Amino acid sequence: MSETLSSRNDTAPAPEREPQRRRPRGDDDRLWEVDATRTLAMVMMVVYHVVYDINFLLPAAGVDPYNGVWRALQVVCGSTFLTLVGISFWISHERAKADRLTGEQLWRSHLLRGFEVLAAATVVSIATRVALGPDDAVRFGILHLIAALMIVVLPLTVRLGRWNAILGAAIIAAGLSTDLTSDIPGLLALGFEPPQAGVDWYPLMPWGGAALLGVALGSVLYPCGRRGPALRALPRHPRLGRLAAQPGRRSLPFYLVHQPVLVAVLGSGFWLFGADV
User: What percentage of the chain exceeds 90 in pLDDT?
Assistant: First the structure.
């Protein structure tokens, strides 16, 4: 019988293979808890920027966004956003692998989003240069860092999975324990402080470490890009959770517009009450 089967396999025409197609992603594929956590980070960002803008528009108010509880809020907010970048990158990477993307295809699947963030970062740099002048313009802010992570860093390290925790911790430790300075403009992206860092400076050391910790966390919580055993108790489609997740799905456009809106509202309010803005 084995000979008969072998003969049939040798002579029968091979069935035509259908081209592999990526399964479209819909709302059911989104993880509401990730989006809801991003919404929480957006709320923290708005609260911090309200305080920052009050200090900018009305220094006499006496609020200090650079120290104390407000500085702590900024650190928690930025760290949360960057950790979510790592978690989301891991989930996207694993789902792309499930769609049989490999090598260059896998890398290109991340590029589009990375370049979208880079374009937004460029808009922020130009806008702040016009509004604040060259000394205070955003040179390498959180959007610049996220773009660099998505295009260059995370595609190289995502395969390390949970080992990214060691690399991320090392980058954070290096950034916090060293005091590096340089006049070479490009080195500010790594963590070398230039004479003028501008506002919203988020260099790779230490901030990039949070994204690598996010990749490691994602590999534990979302093996293969799906909820793992640690998250199986979460409800799949909670009404309140899905409602809280909605703003988090649009974090990039929200980031771009929220500051001009806040400045306009606060400035108008101060002006109406006769404050010297």
Answer: 68
